[in-house]
Write a structure and sequence with these properties.
With 323 residues, this protein is of the alpha/beta class. Helices cover 46% and strands 11% of the residues. It is built from 13 helices and 7 strands. The chain has a 7-stranded mixed sheet, with helices on both faces. α8 crosses α11 and α8 (191-219) packs across α12 (285-296). The chain is elongated and about 75 Å long.
Length: 323
């Protein structure tokens, strides 16, 4: 494969490059090893880079934090890659379009851009169309695994053309867990982010079920070892899961969760899942309730519950609690 006229993979890599860059390139002689550009080296992107390198792939990363970056700019990153190139974008949704548009200006025909961030699926088709005008391919990939992905592997949900998916399969194989599970080509462009949206909506519901169970156990007059109950569920029960394992770990560190606030953010996918349920008239009772519970967590004194209290007092003379 000929080198791009924009530069070689090592010619501009001097003292600022990570110490393992050169050994990594030497390892890229293995069958199926690939070269990949990776934009965004935060908690997810940085761990993905290390997992890929451990599998023998060459990864040239770019991040605004120069201490993490292998390249000085997006143009510099592209210049370090062989043609045809593949660049994986792992940046916040708010800056994904701008990042992809900047990359499109320095990439060439037959290159591929992969968006692995938490973009809304409706953004994917317009991006793919803009890139297709330049002859650039596009894949959207829902990525699950969090900070544990480097060790355990990442669940990957991919949307896009079959030819593009096949070309990136060595990368997907390196990122996914070992075995038959953890990867799906979910459908055309947009399907990967759609699947990840639903995945995160389900995650909301599962997390909230465990949370409600925790509160009920903690309020009980009979159960005296709440952390022990959760630990007992981790094996041999129908509610065992990785989320349960993580809750058990949290309870080991803080049995009463006393160090935490109940204020809980949502990152968008839960809302988008509920929006889709409304659009398609699908009753998402559990996921919707879990999303609304997060909204309630942010209210020190709920206006809605104040109104309920006032109404009970007005029609029935029920006692109310004054501030």
């Amino acid at each position: 494969m000929a080198r791009s006229s924009r530069g070689t993979g090592t010619s501009s890599c001097r003292s600022a490059c990570p110490a393992d860059r050169q050994p990594q390139q030497n390892r890229r002689t293995e069958v199926g090893a690939m070269q990949l550009g990776l934009v965004g080296l935060g908690r997810m992107g940085g761990n993905m880079r290390e997992r890929l390198r451990a599998a023998g792939h060459e990864v040239v990363g770019y991040d605004r934090n120069a201490e993490l970056s292998d390249a000085a700019s997006l143009a510099d990153l592209v210049g370090k890659l062989e043609s045809p190139r593949a660049v994986w974008v792992m940046v916040p949704a708010a800056v994904t379009d701008a990042t992809i548009d900047e990359l499109a200006g320095v990439l060439a025909e037959d290159d591929i851009i992969i968006d692995g961030g938490n973009s809304r699926y409706t953004d994917d088709a317009p991006r793919a169309e803009r890139l297709a005008e330049r002859g650039i391919g596009y894949l959207d990939v829902g990525v699950s695994g969090g900070v544990w992905g480097r060790q355990n592997g990442y669940g990957l949900m991919v949307g896009g053309a079959q030819e593009h998916v096949e070309r990136l399969m060595p990368v997907f194989e390196a990122l996914k867990p070992a075995g038959e599970f953890g990867f799906v080509h979910a459908g055309p462009v947009g399907a990967g982010h759609y699947a990840k949206m639903v995945h995160n909506g389900i995650e909301y519901g599962l997390m909230h079920a465990y949370a409600e169970g925790y509160e009920l156990l903690a309020r009980s007059e009979i159960v005296t070892n709440v952390p022990g109950v959760f630990k007992s569920w981790r094996d041999g029960t129908v509610v065992q899961s990785w989320l349960l394992d993580l809750l058990d770990r949290a309870l080991d560190e803080d049995p009463e969760l006393a160090e935490l606030s109940g204020y809980t953010e949502d990152t968008g996918e839960g809302r988008w899942t509920v929006d889709e349920a409304v659009r398609l008239a699908v009753p998402l009772n559990v996921i919707s309730a879990a999303l609304f519970a997060r909204f309630a967590s942010r209210q020190d004194d709920s206006p809605a519950m104040k109104a309920v209290s006032a109404l009970r007092q007005q029609f029935g003379g029920h006692a109310v609690h004054k501030r």
